[in-house]
Amino acid sequence: MPKTLKHIDDVTIRFAGDSGDGMQLTGDRFTSATAIIGNDLSTLPDYPAEIRAPAGSLAGVSAFQLHFSSQEIFSPGDNPDVLVAMNPAALKVHLKELTRGGIIIVNTASFTAKNLKLAQYETNPLDDKSLRDYVVYPVDMSRLVAHACEDMGITTKTVERTKNMFALGVLYWMYNRPMDTTIKWLKQKFAKKPEIVEANTRALQAGFNYGSTNRIFTTNYKVDAAKLNPGTYRNISGNQATALGLVAASVRANLPLFYGSYPITPASDILHHLAGFRNFKVKTFQAEDEIAGITSAIGAAFAGSLAATGTSGPGVALKTEAMGLAVMTELPLVIVNVQRGGPATGLPTKTEQADLFQALYGRNGEAPIPVISARSPGDCFAAAFEAAQVALKYMTPVMVLTDGYVGNGSEPWIIPNVADLPEIKPNFFQGDEDEAFLPYKRNPDTLARDWVAPGTPGREHRIGGLEKEDGSGNVNYDPENHHKMVTLRDEKIKRVVEDIRPCRIIGEQEGDLLILTWGSTRGAARAALQKLLKEGKSVGHMHLRWLNPLPQDLGGILDKFEKILIPEINLGQLAQIIRARYLKEPHQLNLVRGRPFLTREIMDKVNELTG
Amino acid sequence: MPKTLKHIDDVTIRFAGDSGDGMQLTGDRFTSATAIIGNDLSTLPDYPAEIRAPAGSLAGVSAFQLHFSSQEIFSPGDNPDVLVAMNPAALKVHLKELTRGGIIIVNTASFTAKNLKLAQYETNPLDDKSLRDYVVYPVDMSRLVAHACEDMGITTKTVERTKNMFALGVLYWMYNRPMDTTIKWLKQKFAKKPEIVEANTRALQAGFNYGSTNRIFTTNYKVDAAKLNPGTYRNISGNQATALGLVAASVRANLPLFYGSYPITPASDILHHLAGFRNFKVKTFQAEDEIAGITSAIGAAFAGSLAATGTSGPGVALKTEAMGLAVMTELPLVIVNVQRGGPATGLPTKTEQADLFQALYGRNGEAPIPVISARSPGDCFAAAFEAAQVALKYMTPVMVLTDGYVGNGSEPWIIPNVADLPEIKPNFFQGDEDEAFLPYKRNPDTLARDWVAPGTPGREHRIGGLEKEDGSGNVNYDPENHHKMVTLRDEKIKRVVEDIRPCRIIGEQEGDLLILTWGSTRGAARAALQKLLKEGKSVGHMHLRWLNPLPQDLGGILDKFEKILIPEINLGQLAQIIRARYLKEPHQLNLVRGRPFLTREIMDKVNELTG
Amino acid sequence: MAKNETTMEKQLTRMDFASDQVVKWCPGCGDYSILAQVQKVFPTLGIPKENYVVISGIGCSSRFPYYMDTYGFHGIHGRAAAIATGVKLANPELSVWIVTGDGDSMSIGGNHFIHLLRRNVDVNILLFNNRIYGLTKGQYSPTSPLGKVTKSTPMGSLDHPFNPPALALGADASFVARTIDKEPKHMQEIIKRSHKHHGTSFLEIYQNCLIFNDGEFDRYTDKDKKADNVLTLEHGKPMIFGKNKDKGIHLAGNNPRVVSIGAEGQWSVDDLLVHDEHDWIIASILSHFTYREDLPTPIGVLYAKAQSVYEELLDDQCHQAVKLYGKGDLQKLMSEGDTWVVK
Amino acid sequence: MAKNETTMEKQLTRMDFASDQVVKWCPGCGDYSILAQVQKVFPTLGIPKENYVVISGIGCSSRFPYYMDTYGFHGIHGRAAAIATGVKLANPELSVWIVTGDGDSMSIGGNHFIHLLRRNVDVNILLFNNRIYGLTKGQYSPTSPLGKVTKSTPMGSLDHPFNPPALALGADASFVARTIDKEPKHMQEIIKRSHKHHGTSFLEIYQNCLIFNDGEFDRYTDKDKKADNVLTLEHGKPMIFGKNKDKGIHLAGNNPRVVSIGAEGQWSVDDLLVHDEHDWIIASILSHFTYREDLPTPIGVLYAKAQSVYEELLDDQCHQAVKLYGKGDLQKLMSEGDTWVVK
Ligand SMILES: Cc1ncc(C[n+]2csc(CCOP(=O)(O)OP(=O)(O)O)c2C)c(N)n1
Ligand SMILES: Cc1ncc(C[n+]2csc(CCOP(=O)(O)OP(=O)(O)O)c2C)c(N)n1
Ligand code: SF4
Ligand code: SF4
Ligand SMILES: [Mg+2]
Ligand SMILES: [Mg+2]
């Protein structure tokens, strides 16, 4: 039967299955193949807090969503067009979000009575009429992979494990993706187990063939390369980008990188990546807890390294005392918070933006620090790099806020030229041999104090957490000196505003409504903006990278719009800051559900407000 | 020579000497004697961060200021009228604040060349003309006490140690205070060392006699009892009052009190006091660190105790993760922060109000908690009591903010009648035997969940830090449930507003300017208000006890004044909250010097603003 | 079940301790066995069901309380010991069980762990030692052997591991024991011993994490290897082990080594070290068997001593204080010191 | 002094290590002696002055760095070990000294302390043990003996104290030693030994706090008592002590006890335990002398062993990685994985 090839612009696929079904990996592979084709893309992994909840259970469903397009895109997509459901539980959990009329590909072999019961289905949805509004492709993947690997003499369990590759193959056919990079990857990954490579390759091929030859599949699709900015691209996850950003800063500052950290979801991957960069002399230190993570980094900063520590919200909570120490000792330090659902342990594997207050205010005493947020996976590179720049220039700890979505999600990223990255000049003491060294003497422009690392002859000095005398840095309890130092530390952070790019509004430059975002919410907002502009709405979008200090010209920009809408995955933290700073009343959209906003939700809110 | 007795209304005395000179103790005794006379009073201890810095050094000066009056007073006084300086360093450090024309009493024996040098005096101030603007009483106290104890056969060192009692005696004469309570106290304190009692009593008596007989003292003063509210009074320090407030709440709630804490200046005294109440079944637990302090308290709360933990800013920093746990598990818990100078170790023995942001926002995720502040030493009792009430009623952690000044300072306090203290009904599960128990079912009014302690048959349940399903309290990762729970927790704390007394403005009820204060700044503000009203200014004063939630009627009150002035010992934390909440622009007075505001400073600012 | 009466009268069974929550560990995880043994032992201890409290930190193992139909508290990472201390001090009637992992108790929670041991609060620690971080997907832990290749140590870990029994002994523990997930009978017995001990009991349980550290304890669990690699301690008995009970521990000076006994004749039972639970030095020597390939791993009670118990001393002080100063009278307390009356 | 050249060439003296800050301990505090000995020893170690780093937590003792004219870091309470780890890992050339109190290192900082020991980072710990919290004005500490009456324990403390050498040994310390503030010569010698040890050296110094805990160590420092109560350890020598060198330590089974030697004849030197620094069991036995009234307190090196050092293994991995993958090339690193070009 002849097949039709359709050109389309934009597809969202969701892979869903049991925790053991390899959905994250399948998604990753599809993403890679899609990236290479040159589509723009955005991904959203979503996995349970348990390592492997009971097979077939609703709690054990793991999913990976991928949005790709021939246009520039900003979010992982609201509703999937295609749902790959490896078992009934996956279908049950994810069906409600599938686009009406969307495609469902299921592994029928898993629709056993037991699994149906585990998924709380009374009747088999493949047999009753409940899926009639969708295009369903029921495929007995288990049988087909068994067939494909028949003569290999490997265990049934091993064969069964390849069924995700079969599903991938079907989708490769359906969306015209090349299989070679996946096969190459399999070869590398399982270099020592050729039979695994073989089995998986066969399953992949079988899936592809099944799509191209089986009658039930009538159409496949072509999504052209997107017209992205020219450059060499790779696909990158946020945590990967953060790690690279730190290494890049260390190279451009010509300082060794020290990373002290304690594992925590969803931040651990930064540690994992950095631990692999020993040939850059990157020293990673898996500390006994978050306190040792940051205090070891403070020690390394004192010793002259570019020091960083990374964690998620509960870990930041434990670091707050030491952050105060870094403020008082005025040492450069990058602190990364890959935010997750809170409070407390909360939703450890889900995303949230509720640690902004903690970043800004979560310390005893007046302890201001600059705070930057990453807007997308690739932007984590720039955010980490800029944070290090500011830390080294102003001699201050800097907080980088990313989140679970940005940290685990991925997107195409233009690989920068090393030479184009700004050189970073740490604020080392520049005085000549005979100049007296005063550890708290400040650069008159930046107010940064001079940095001298132990090992430098003749400049021995002591720092610590007690209040410092201006200039000498000696311990000092004088009331007026304290006031002066509190004010100086505050002023120093205010001056970071000099390093912040002026605001850039996308869309209308003035008008009815400005969408104001920070962090990962930018994606959904930009996607919404595009559509709203097409609908002829008078809407602009302004995104904040730096939350402290705020850009100098922000006040003026807020004045240009009738209304301001701040969508946040919290109860209105940026909104409160804007209220306090500009005495303006923004509208809020606060949905705290452990996942990014949908484009539609922002559009609906804008429509409601501009109605 | 006949002496004159003058009636005066108001005196401020400052005792200053070496850390080893017993100035805190001397001040305490004078305070006691003054309280018994029925004066209103307010005290301000001020001691160095070192236990005993080198004798005679400027760093080693310890001071105690006492303001007493026949009128109601609110602050420890701006500038002392009398300075007792036991050595040159004490004179050097404190002279600049003495009222022009004020009295200086010095121990001449300590004005040796060595001590003068240590105090960085070029010439002896007693000999040069530098003190000509003051009334100086040079007394060779060392010689006089030696004389008084001549025949006792005790060491010179012991004798020398009594010279603070001599100084006290002089002042007792000068201000007509009775000596008997001091003598009684000496007998109790040194019950096992009668020779110490004897020596000190002799020194005290000698000082008194010296005043009454020596020619150089021509006048003494009488300060009548103040017309205070009727009742039985005692003098009380803030930390003492906090301890009593917690015990009182435990008695009125009929729950045992558990206090888990780790020592830290200036909060340790709460632990010390509570440790003495074992006959109330008060269980104090000196934990290994602040984290164990709070988590043990959370355990005790789970087990059905009234649980509390106390510390200062750096300790709170370490508790923030666990505070999130208490928010999520919705357990009653009182957290006391006796604020000190920050950031980091900062000024450990000085006061500050810079932990308000930390109290409100210093946690990961959306983790709102009620925050109450104590306005004066005696008010710590009520603040602690109310915090416990709210914690038990709403099933929530509550933060009590006091500070070093309020914690160590003291004032007369009306001893409440136990029967007048409200009874507290903990939110224990009330359902009957057969009613199913759902740990997260809420009281529809307060939204508090039901409390059931282990040991209760048939109501076994589990709690923890992961997000809870509404009602059942089971672990739940559902997006909509999370949003609901985040919102519910927020709403619950908002409802605490029902328990907050409406605002009360002192002074003008509307007009040019409202002074808005929180915490210990109330004293200086009220004192300033009194004077400003006398000057005919159109000024009111509104004091906030609860910082979260804010009283319902605050917005309306702010509207009644042209200008609002918020004096704070921080860089404007309440001001920012007021800006955000009411979109109003208050004026700020921010002096961060490790000590309370002076009345004059607030007056000056008001005068500047009301021109 | 009828409410508000203790469950003492009723004969409890294993099912009484199974909660309604689905157990969410990976199929085959060693944690299942520990859960089963605890559920089997609890009904036999003569404690009313409502008096059990199970408290944990964070980790795969720390999900344990959710699966027990007792009072339970899933705490925050590393703090189970401190939470449990608060629970027990507040109500010494309760039977308090701490469930923790090697990361939870030895890494972030190390300080609370050692302080709990020295205080000797009468609670029970069950340490699920899988020598890996399970829940965060496979970083090395403080009990992973030197050189361990994991996600966070791609070139191998650099730190010498903690030896849990040795650390516990150094922290003045009054009871130290070990068992293995795959030895259900032994585990039950030792859990009972832990319960009986007056003071903090520390029980290390070797637990296989089949996802991130499969096979770590194969030497001690594989059918054909375990007899030669596991030494089951019995108080007052010589230390004999081996498939044929033909091996024993001999102490040469202070150096323990394995000798063959029986047939070959060079060594006899009399040459072997005799286990004495109350001997701190023997316990220390045994603790040093950990990580050594040339020595078997001892299981059973390594050490037990009588020592005063924190919460009892605390309650004593409360009683003492009532005797000395009378039962607390709030009015009197508030009126202490100098007072005066204003009319 | 001329800048930017190492100070190696110059003969350093004690005064080179005295900073310009006024020392603010209470007159008579044991801390003064320790400061003096450190200032005397540092010039003799052959280390350029600029390579010394002194790192502390919070407490009276932790003010130490301010008084040393070296690089110094007065950290936050309990975290000196972690800060020092960062310093040493970042620059292994530095000679890193941790100054800490019994509260700082054993209470809030207990976890960092035990982890530092097991990692065996080549730094030196000087623990000023005064068995009290000095700076916060006299609460009991984790090394205060049971029943201690202090501000926070008016009826006596309830917890068994930590035994610092035992805890250190339990945490796999590679060097454990003890000295006394009032034994300046001995202290100097042991500070030198600490420095020489490759790996973390742990030196406990008994230090009198005359304000809040005066006399705690009188048994070991009073002229007429100390000889009978202090056992000075020497490697390879029998354990003899006493004013007349007529007492010794004999081991009966695993129980150490004091015996009289010489004249009375019942015991001879040959019956005495011979000190072996490398024997973990002997060190453990010696660690248990702490708090015992019937045994002398051992001072000197209790234990020393060779063990791999964390920061060296880390540097090795860096070199290894360069060998394996080439010197880090940022452009290459950023371009890893699948890439594609958009024109
Ligand atoms: C403050 C904090 N830091 C880090 C984490 C992340 N975390 C959760 S469990 C865990 C370690 C788990 O290892 P282990 O205690 O051995 O338990 P297992 O999963 O192996 O049973 C870590 C690091 C956390 N939840 N909280
Ligand atoms: C986070 C924190 N908690 C508590 C304190 C208060 N504090 C300062 S020093 C100290 C204990 C000091 O005892 P120790 O370490 O024995 O030192 P010493 O003063 O006896 O030399 C405490 C509890 C603090 N500074 N920071
Ligand atoms: S990851 Fe390991 S420890 Fe965790 S549940 Fe799975 S098998 Fe068990
Ligand atoms: S309080 Fe004690 S430890 Fe602190 S300086 Fe004084 S004597 Fe030394
Ligand atoms: Mg583990
Ligand atoms: Mg101490």
Please give a quick description of this structure.
The complex is a heterotetramer, with 2 copies of chain A (611 residues) and 2 copies of chain C (343 residues). By secondary structure, chain A is an alpha/beta fold. At the B-C interface, helix 1, strand 9, helix 9, helix 11 and helix 12 of B face strand 1, strand 2, helix 2, helix 4 and helix 10 of C.
What does this structure look like?
The complex is a heterotetramer, with two copies of chain A (611 residues) and two copies of chain C (343 residues). Chain A is an alpha/beta fold and 611 residues long. Chain A folds into three domains: 4-222, Pyruvate-ferredoxin oxidoreductase, PFOR, domain III (Pyruvate-ferredoxin Oxidoreductase, domain 3), CATH 3.40.920.10; 233-420, 3-Layer(aba) Sandwich (Rossmann fold), CATH 3.40.50; 505-610, 3-Layer(aba) Sandwich (Rossmann fold). In chain A, helix 11 (290-302) packs parallel to helix 12 (313-329). The longest helix of chain A has 20 residues, at 194-213. The longest helix of chain C is centred in the last third of the chain and has 16 residues, at 310-325. Chain C is 29% helix and 18% strand. In chain C, the strands form two sheets. Chain C has an eight-stranded mixed beta sheet, sandwiched between helices. In chain C, strands 8-9-10 form a three-stranded antiparallel beta sheet. Chain C is of the alpha/beta class. In chain C, strand 8 (240-241) and strand 9 (247-252) form a beta hairpin. The chains are: A alpha/beta (611), C alpha/beta (343). Chains in contact: A-B, A-C, A-D, B-C, B-D, C-D. Chains B and C meet through helix 1, strand 9, helix 9, helix 11 and helix 12 of B and strand 1, strand 2, helix 2, helix 4 and helix 10 of C. One iron/sulfur cluster (SF4) is lined by residues 25-26, 29, 31, 60, 130, 134, 209-212 of chain C.
